């Protein structure tokens, strides 16, 4: 797959990125380099390779799953700039 100048301009427009006309050939070339790299990655044989979340094997710390009645609203709402009737008060944004 090859990206031309017109396609690069369309991608820039969709991404809301202003690109000068004289920079479009370089952008198209950069997109082509990225696509070439992605094609190279698809050639790698990953059969039998376990998916991993980190390069070092580690177990994520977990908290106990305990059912509670919820937090105490008083301390939580004390940090709010405006609280009314036990809830956070926010400005109206929809008419």
From TrEMBL:
Xref: Pfam families: GatC
Any one Gene Ontology BP term: translation
InterPro entries: Asp/Glu-ADT_sf_sub_c, GatC
Catalytic activity: L-aspartyl-tRNA(Asn) + L-glutamine + ATP + H2O = L-asparaginyl-tRNA(Asn) + L-glutamate + ADP + phosphate + 2 H(+); L-glutamyl-tRNA(Gln) + L-glutamine + ATP + H2O = L-glutaminyl-tRNA(Gln) + L-glutamate + ADP + phosphate + H(+)
Enzyme Commission number(s) of this protein: 6.3.5.-
MF (Gene Ontology): asparaginyl-tRNA synthase (glutamine-hydrolyzing) activity; ATP binding; glutaminyl-tRNA synthase (glutamine-hydrolyzing) activity; transferase activity
Keywords attached to this entry: ATP-binding, Ligase, Nucleotide-binding, Protein biosynthesis, Transferase
Iron found in the keyword field: no
Family per similarity comment: Belongs to the GatC family.
Matching PANTHER family: GLUTAMYL-TRNA(GLN) AMIDOTRANSFERASE SUBUNIT C, MITOCHONDRIAL
NCBIfam families per the UniProt record, alphabetical: gatC (TIGR00135)
Subunit: Heterotrimer of A, B and C subunits.
Biological role: Allows the formation of correctly charged Asn-tRNA(Asn) or Gln-tRNA(Gln) through the transamidation of misacylated Asp-tRNA(Asn) or Glu-tRNA(Gln) in organisms which lack either or both of asparaginyl-tRNA or glutaminyl-tRNA synthetases. The reaction takes place in the presence of glutamine and ATP through an activated phospho-Asp-tRNA(Asn) or phospho-Glu-tRNA(Gln).
Protein known as: Aspartyl/glutamyl-tRNA(Asn/Gln) amidotransferase subunit C
Organism: Poseidonocella pacifica
Name of the gene this protein is made from: gatC
């Amino acid at each position: 797959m090859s990206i031309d100048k017109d396609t690069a301009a369309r991608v820039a427009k969709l991404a809301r990125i202003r690109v000068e006309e004289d920079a479009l050939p370089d952008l198209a070339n950069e997109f082509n380099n990225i696509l070439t790299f992605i094609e190279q990655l698809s050639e790698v044989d990953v059969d039998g390779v376990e998916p991993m979340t980190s390069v070092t094997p580690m177990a994520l710390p977990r908290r106990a799953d305990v059912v509670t009645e919820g937090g105490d609203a008083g301390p939580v709402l004390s940090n709010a700039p405006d609280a009314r009737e036990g809830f956070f008060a926010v400005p109206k944004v929809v008419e």
